[in-house]
Amino acid sequence: MDFPFEDCIVAVENLSVPLYRELLEYQHNMAYLLLDLRRLEEQMLKFTEQNFMARYLSGPEQVYLNTLTSDKRKREWLGGRFAARYVGADMLAHKQNPVPWFQLAVIADSNGRPFLYADTKRNVLPDISISHSGGLAAAMAVSKGLCGIDIQKVTDRVVKVRDRFCTPKEEQLVLSLCNASRELQSSAGLTRLWAAKEALRKVANTRSLPGFLELELTDIREGPAQKGQALWQYIFVWNHTVMSGNPVTEKCCVAVTALGDYVLALTARDDTFT
Fold first, then answer.
1. Is 247's pLDDT higher than 90?
2. Residue 181 — very low, low, confident or very high, per pLDDT cuts 50/70/90?
3. pLDDT band for position 274 (50/70/90)?
4. Taking the CA of residue 271 as centre, how many other CA atoms within 13 Å lie in the half-sphere pointing to its CB?
5. Which of 14, 82, 191, 196 has the fewest Cβ atoms nearer than 10 Å?
6. How many other C-beta atoms lie within 10 A of the C-beta of residue 120?
7. Using an 8 Å Cβ cutoff, are 233 and 253 in contact?
């Protein structure tokens, strides 16, 4: 793929391997990409702002970028969208329906959820999800259904706000898998839970996002190490009411891995929450 920001790629994976299919109980193709935002900024300096926007952004994207006043926010926004275009184009190439990455645009729906747009009727476009934290941006795409990705840099801030997203029972469960000091246990374990719930909230196709405490962690299963990194399956239960008014209980799976100072959480469903 002719991607001008190759030097910014930290990791790119096509997750059609049986391991991730098993962890997520998902049987279709998916991919994710991590971009280094500092390197992206360095690449952007090679262009004038006007030339950069005209070359790589659609009209609506240019308009939105001009509303952002913070350089940091601009890097995060651009990094997430370039990553999403890349993995979206990768999915289409695997389906033998290629669309160049620069012909894809990322637009938000009325709830702020991003989706791909292309000026063509030949393709059913993949679902995408975007996240950023610290110096990294992440995006995921799936060939069928919905996906959710979240990346979080591990900090002690998550300990201070754990009551907003974590029950005492969940905290005991996540800390049982940590082998570091108590302080590091809390930060790392709680960040994994936070990222897993964020990914699930992004994949919920409902009128409003589920609350963090509505998603109940019931089990954590260790998976085989992936490229030297620990990998876990987080299993949740979500009790909610569907649009028809009927109560349902959903089982939800998230793949969670540690990447140095970061936590990456991925989920995908070939059906949808309704």
1. no
2. very low
3. very low
4. 6
5. 14
6. 11
7. yes
Cα–Cα dist 103/85, whole Å = 9
Pick the range with the lowest mean pLDDT from 47-51, 76-80, 126-130, 164-168. 47-51
> Rounded to whole angstroms, how far apart are CA atoms 228 and 197?
24
What is the rounded distance in angstroms from the CA atom of residue 274 to the CA atom of residue 93? 30
Query: What is the identity of the amino acid at 73?
Result: R
Q: Quick one: which of 34, 78, 3, 41 has its CA closest to 229?
A: 34
Nearest 5°: phi and psi at 186?
-60, -50
**pLDDT, mean of residues 87-113:** 88
pLDDT band at 179 (very low <50, low <70, confident <90, very high): low
Q: Is the Cβ–Cβ distance between 83 and 34 less than 8 Å?
A: yes
Is 80 exceeded by the pLDDT of residue 145?
A: yes
> In which residue ranges of the chain is CATH 3.90.470.20 found?
6-144
Residue 207 one-letter amino acid: R
Residue 162 phi, psi dihedral angles, 5° rounding: -60, -25
Name the CATH architecture for the domain at 6-144.
Alpha-Beta Complex (3.90)
Give the dihedral sign, CA 257/259/262/267: negative
The gap between the terminal CA atoms of the chain, to the nearest Å, is: 36
